[in-house]
From TrEMBL:
Keywords: Membrane, Transmembrane, Transmembrane helix, Transport
Primary site of residence: membrane
Domain spans labelled Cation efflux protein transmembrane: 10-218
Compartment(s): Membrane
Signal sequence bounds: none
Protein name from the UniProt record: Cation diffusion facilitator family transporter
Transcription found in the keyword field: no
Transmembrane residue ranges: 9-30, 77-100, 112-134, 160-183, 189-211
InterPro entries found in the cross-reference section: Cation_efflux, Cation_efflux_CTD_sf, Cation_efflux_TM, Cation_efflux_TMD_sf, SLC30A9
Length: 307
């Protein structure tokens, strides 16, 4: 995928989650641990989420049609939003329900070595998956902090995988904590408490993902730095004297729409204006490569209050 789509990170997470989900279901079947069941469903939901991200990336590559003249780039945002919904319902709400049920009707964990062994294995596998996501994210996040990267990234896949992997690791630690306390005390309530904590964690992550992908779905413009670069590239001081107004919109993670009204000399001929527009478009594409669709409206330079 383009624009930091993170295909490698998604595939690593998918392989890890499928193997972990199978192991967790086996451990739950032998031990009866609610934490193991919640974690198994969590891993299964994460596997479905990664499949959704891959599907969204594939469908977003479709060529523009008469019905969708700007293409299907935003479909990646749609599938990322679906991921947050799946994580919220299948992962978070199920874990809270299962944990509450276990607290209301606690029972001891059987065959303790199954859940403990699987959790240790899962922590190791998730660590490798998380490491892959961090490595790919570092290649595109630049000098941004991790929170800034999650908030500002236009390609949704890497932030989604990062938060999923982080949630999975913390959830596994919570599950191990709940199981360990339940085994040490002989009180199955702690297994339920750990399960509820996992559910709350997943709900928080799901809400963060939903808020961020909703913003992308509604349509976000270019960053301040890119807007400044586009504005500077449009003006050459000769044919184009200034930018009257400028608007940008991401049609997809790797395609930016630029619409601007530019001031040209009042005595330029139509041919000169056309050449100035072509040159301005070339400068913008060189300055900001994702600016692939550019519409420029020439106007006569007047007062600074032009709109």
């Amino acid at each position: 995928m383009a624009a930091g789509g993170g295909t490698k990170a998604i595939l690593a997470a998918l392989c890890a989650n499928l193997s972990i989900a199978a192991a967790k279901f086996v451990a739950w079947a032998f031990s009866g641990s609610s934490s193991m069941l919640a974690e198994a469903v969590h891993s299964l939901a994460d596997s479905g989420n990664q499949a959704l991200l891959l599907l969204g990336g594939k469908r977003a590559k479709r060529a523009a049609t008469k019905e969708h003249p700007f293409g299907y780039g935003r479909e990646r945002y749609v599938y990322a939003f679906l991921v947050s919904i799946v994580l919220f319902t299948v992962g978070g709400l199920f874990a809270v329900y299962e944990g509450y049920h276990k607290i209301e009707d606690p029972h001891e964990i059987d065959h303790w070595y199954w859940p403990v062994g699987v959790l240790v294995f899962a922590i190791i596998a998730e660590t490798f998956s998380f490491r892959t996501a961090i490595k790919e994210s570092n290649e595109v996040r630049g000098g941004q902090s991790w929170w800034q990267f999650i908030r500002r990234a236009k390609a949704p896949e890497l932030p989604v995988v990062l938060l999923e992997d982080l949630g999975a690791l913390v959830g596994l630690i919570l599950a191990l904590f709940g199981v360990s306390i339940a085994l040490a005390t002989g009180d199955g309530v702690w297994d339920g408490v750990g399960t509820v904590c996992i559910g709350v964690l997943l709900l928080i992550i799901a809400v963060i993902l939903a808020v961020e992908t909703k913003s992308l779905l509604l349509g976000e413009g270019a960053s301040d730095a890119d807007v400044a670069a586009i504005g500077a590239a449009l003006v050459d001081g000769d044919a184009v004297t200034r930018v009257i107004h400028l608007k940008t919109l991401y049609l997809g993670p790797d395609e930016l729409l630029v619409a601007a009204k530019i001031a040209v000399q009042h005595d330029d001929t139509a041919a000169e204006v056309a050449r100035a527009i072509d040159a301005a478009e070339a400068r913008v594409r060189e300055a900001v490569p994702v600016a692939r669709m550019i519409y420029l409206e020439p106007d006569i330079a007047r007062a600074k209050t032009d709109t």
